[in-house]
Design brief:
Blueprint (H helix, E strand, L loop, with lengths): L6 H8 L3 H26 L4 H8 L3 H7 L9 H11 L10
Helix pairs in contact: 3-4
């Protein structure tokens, strides 16, 4: 008989694998950053199109900034987002 597990149980087991845990944390960071950008934009009442205009980029490029699949964030881009939205940019390094 097949034992079924919940997502949380399965994830907990997979996180025991060091390589998987490292990859998972990296992907989670990208998702969080994209969501933070989207949250700041919506709290400021900006559409993606308006935000892209403030950043002097295309709407497609602005949309990618909010995507969990995007990995090309630069410090300069994050500074521009903060300036355009009036947000504070905090950078933390953790071990």
């Amino acid at each position: 008989m097949t034992k079924y597990t919940t997502f949380r149980e399965d994830l907990k087991e997979q996180l025991d694998d060091r390589a998987f845990r490292k990859y998972y944390k990296h992907e989670l960071q990208k998702l969080r950053l994209g969501k933070q950008i989207a949250d700041v934009r919506t709290k400021r009442g900006l559409t993606q199109k308006a935000m892209a205009k403030l950043l002097k980029t295309s709407q497609g490029a602005g949309t990618r900034l909010e995507s969990g699949a995007y990995a090309g964030y630069s410090l300069r881009t994050l500074e521009k987002i903060a300036a355009a939205t009036g947000a504070q940019l905090d950078i933390h390094l953790h071990l």
